[in-house]
Amino acid sequence: MYSIPASRNQVILNFRRIPWGIAAGVVLLAVALPRVMLLGGLPTTDEGAYLYYAQIMHASLIRGDGLPDTGPLMLYPMLLNWIFSLKGNAFIAFRVADMLVASLAGYVFFRVIEAECRNRTGGILIAAIFLFVLNQPIFIQSGFKNSIYAAYLPLLTALWLGLNAPDRADVRRWIGIGALLALTVLLRETFAPLAALGALTALLSRGWRALVRIIIGAAVTTLAVVGVVMLARGGTSALLDSYKEAGIIYNAVMNQRSELFFSAAVYVVRENIVILALASIGSISVIVDSVGGKSTRNLSRLVFWLLVTAIPLIEPASKIGFPYHFGVCLIGLAGITALGWRIVWGWDRAFLRGAAVVGMCASLLGAVVPRMEVLTYSWLQTREALAAFSSGGWPEEFTSRSNYLLAAQAIRQASLPGGTIAISGFMHALYPLTGHLPAAPELANLTSAVIQLKLSSSALRDVLLRCSPGVIMTTTRVEWPGAAEILTAVRETNLYEEFAEISSAGDRSYGTFGGLVLRLAKPAQSGHDCGHIEALR
Fold first, then answer.
1. Residue 502, SS3?
2. Residue spans of alpha helices (H) in 143-272
3. Which of 190, 312, 384, 534 would be a feasible disulfide site paired with 328, CB 3.0-4.6 Å?
4. pLDDT tens digits for 463-509?
5. Rounded distance, CA 424 to CA 448, Å?
6. Region of residue 165 (left: phi > 0; alpha: psi -120 to 50; beta: else)
7. pLDDT tens for residues 123-140?
8. Which ranges of 234-349 does DSSP label H, i.e. alpha helix?
9. 60 and 165 in contact (C-beta within 8 Å)?
């Protein structure tokens, strides 16, 4: 984190903060409004995984068993698991909660941009553009997609504290920054390199004392949070195993990494030409100013923002690249744009200032107008979903539009009250959609299970004989290995009968996520050893 040096321009030196009401208004229009319009979107895969963890945490806590000793830390679902105690559509309720968190993060983002560009007009326009784009379906789908926006809140707060740190910042500020960086990583583990960048920047700009204090704040916070969670879970082995399992799973699709990375990157670039143009102009402004001026101080600031832009690419490059991974890069691109605006404004030339305002207004229109058609259509669907919210489900006519809803309907029909299920193909959304839980944590996703069993159908068959879920859904999702082995294993148990088929259909939401719904036909022969399955640990 670095402090802002004094500017040559008196206008910038006399900058006054934008009133909180204006900042809140920008956040309301750029963050909350588009998210409200997207609330009624059909169930999605990633949010389904987060809802699943919140669901099993809530169920375990209600039973008085503490947190379930399964899976990664999942701090964000843990903090929101109480939503399952409310009546209504859980997907929409979690999206509303995420909207509130994203709005708070958006407000801090606004203040970060304000601190970097040091100009009211630029701060409002740049924040509005980037916040609006960051909260579009390409990055959030219908809302509660992951913990990225929750992690933005402490990350951006730490950045804001660093940007505004006085020359003689007190100990509490740096310890607080360390605590915030730790919370960032606990909420989103893949943000660890960004947290490390913040600590390194503090070292280079403020010295060893600042770094040591940041490390102290981070260490104390990490130990406190992880210690409480581990006590509630009753151990650490399952937590460590979950990260090992994730590595095995991602390694199984290693041959697809490059293809997924570049296809997602091309899509994001094509959809965000305006954003890239603004950042490019900002970079050129910094370079021109540094070459023509006496100081190269702003070049180090440009390098910082370029690193903030580039570091998030580590995640999609190292596992599976999807468009939302690239959305994190927009934080750095916004910083570059704000820095460029500050420099142009510092040149104190009326023509350049006027051109900057006109160009930014045009960019705002270029970012908003093309996306309004999708948002308007989404709002029509949201109104129907909100009308059915109190029922706890979705409007009946939505079922035929989504393979998730079709599969959930079939599973509910095939299940006994209080029965257990097992899904495959990472279709975790079927747990909150049906209200059922897995027979064992290790069987929550049969695709993950069979990958860990080295794609052995006989090994998976033996596991299912020992622990037999009441209903199983296989998968036709072929980008993950193991679809054929799962079906073979289920059939070789001789315990299950086919109940329904969810066919693939390109005109349905997640239409490639098809498969067979099979129910237990011979319960007398099924096993009951559904504790932790050692073969999968």
1. strand
2. 148-163, 171-187, 192-206, 208-233, 237-251, 257-271
3. 312
4. 999 999 999 999 999 889 999 999 999 999 999 999 999 999 989 99
5. 8
6. beta
7. 999 999 999 999 999 999
8. 237-251, 257-271, 273-292, 297-310, 314-318, 323-327, 329-346
9. no
